[in-house]
Amino acid sequence: MFKLLFFPENKLSFTPVFVLMMTFMAAIGCSSMAIIVNEAAGEILEGRVHLTHLPPFLAALVFFVITKRIALRTGIDFVEQTLEKYLNKVGNQLRQAELMQIENLDKGEIYVKMTMDTKKISRTAAAGINVIQSVFTILFVVAYIFVTSPLSGFIFLGLFMISLLYYQSYRHSLHEAIHGAVSKETELFDDFGHVLDGFKELKISHEKNEDFFHNYLRPLSDTVKRLRIRVGDKYARVNVFSFVFMFYLSLGCVVFLLPSYVPVSVRFKVIAASAFLWDPINILSVSMPEILQAYVSGERLDQLEQQLQVSSDLGEFAASTRPEDPLYDFNEIRIENLRFDYTDKEGNTTFFIGPLNLTLKAGEILFLKGGNGSGKSTLLKMLTGLYPPRSGAFVMDGTEINMAEHRHLFSVVYTDCHLFDGLYGIESPSDEKVNELLNMMGIFHKVRWQEGQFRYSELSTGQRKRLSFITALLEDKPIYVFDEWAAEQDPEFRKSFYEKLLPELKARGKTIIAATHDEHYFHVADQVIKMEYGQVRSDA
Ligand SMILES: Nc1ncnc2c1ncn2[C@@H]1O[C@H](COP(=O)(O)OP(=O)(O)OP(=O)(O)O)[C@@H](O)[C@H]1O
């Protein structure tokens, strides 16, 4: 994230340097005002009151206001633009990621990173500029104190250096504490997701509800509270010692310990100048926790970006893109000795499919049967180019192909199909055509087609699948894949699916692969294969 801010495309970006320059100027303006006021106050003390200091004071004020305004405006714009670039980049990475990567990611964590972490960085833009200005102002005022009284300058500088070293020695543990608290916060956020997603289950079972709330959610929220308090406590310790204590200690040293040969007028100037340090020190102390949180958020966003980078394990499979001139016609696809493995974090195989040999002819209907967990859905994901095979080959009309490049051949209705509100990537069909399909699928009364969007309130699972079927028909691809599509349909519609809709698709030259348990309708298929423990059995 910070690389994206300061070194996009591996080159130092001009805008943050410009913001830094403007902040530096604003600090010059601010400290000039302090010095002018100090000098004028000294003269007042000596009984000389005249207005010679007023024009430079006003000039410094105008200079400060203009440069600070430019720094803030440009800085905030820049941070927001960088965040937008970042969100687009991650959005792009997400859509181009492979299914296996997405399955390995924690969705709650992605939401938190894309929303809360980016928000923390966005909120810190102005605070960051104020902190930088404060640091410069402190340096200028200390330099002025140096010029006025080198001994006082040494005292301030020495004690500030000690406070910086103290802060630095604590930074690592503070950073760790913030990381710990934020990870637990993300877990808590995930668990609130369980309350909403599993609301029905929790509502219906008092025991489950109580157990989940008292023995899981509350202890977790208690842990988050404790971790947040720990962060606050650590920060308070650093803050009070390194900023506040050191400031007052420096002031006390100057007031009480300066040797008597230092003239009173000089002492007065030093004390008055040090009063101008209080505001920047206060800004540092208030803003540093926010900046540290934003820093941690930046690291978390970097981590997400890395997780989404295409893993080299996926090799050519992931590198493949849609061909410029995609093929839509084929006679047969042969699957030769194909194997796919699910692995755990240590790389051990937890389930595998194959080696598998199968021939799929264009225009035929293939049914895939098998018990729960036998590997039907996994095989379909591999066939449709969503999972990379570990070994083996797909051969289309005699030529070996990378299936990921041929995903465009398929229209799929998965068991957990997602309904988009519009028909993305499809040339807008006529209203008559869509209404005819809604009618044919018996959901015309539930779903309205308006201005290129499907509008509906709540659909049952069977109705959702019917709407997905319509989308698949409109996509008009050569191969249709249905993963237990008929499982949620009523007997009448199930019959219509097997005995009317599928034969109609076949008559239009479409190839159909369907995972199904409906043995009554196996006569519709040209080929039925049975999956068992990831293997194809011949007794289908
Ligand atoms: N993302 C995954 N990571 C690891 N293992 C998985 C994953 N998805 C499925 N499996 C495992 O792979 C095996 C096959 O699952 P799959 O979903 O392909 O079976 P299925 O035949 O479609 O079952 P069902 O009829 O219940 O839908 C199961 O043992 C399952 O636990």
Summarize the structure.
Helix content is about 60%, strand content about 15%. With about 550 residues, it is an alpha/beta fold. It has two domains: about 300 residues, ABC transporter type 1, transmembrane domain (ABC transporter transmembrane region fold, Up-down Bundle), CATH 1.20.1560.10; about 220 residues, P-loop containing nucleotide triphosphate hydrolases (Rossmann fold).
Succession of helices and strands = HHHHHHHHHHEEEHEEEHEEHEHEEE
What is the CATH first-level class name of the largest domain?
A: Mainly Alpha
CATH architecture of the largest domain: Up-down Bundle
Uncertain residue ranges: none
Contiguous helical run count: 14
Q: What ligands are attached or bound here? A: adenosine-5'-triphosphate
What share of the residues does DSSP label as strand, in percent?
A: 5-15%
Measured between the Cα atoms of the first and last residue, the distance is: 55 Å
The overall number of domains is 2
Q: Could you give me the name of the CATH homologous superfamily of the largest domain? A: ABC transporter type 1, transmembrane domain
The fold-level CATH name of the largest domain is ABC transporter transmembrane region fold
SS-based class: alpha/beta
Record field, number of beta strands? 12
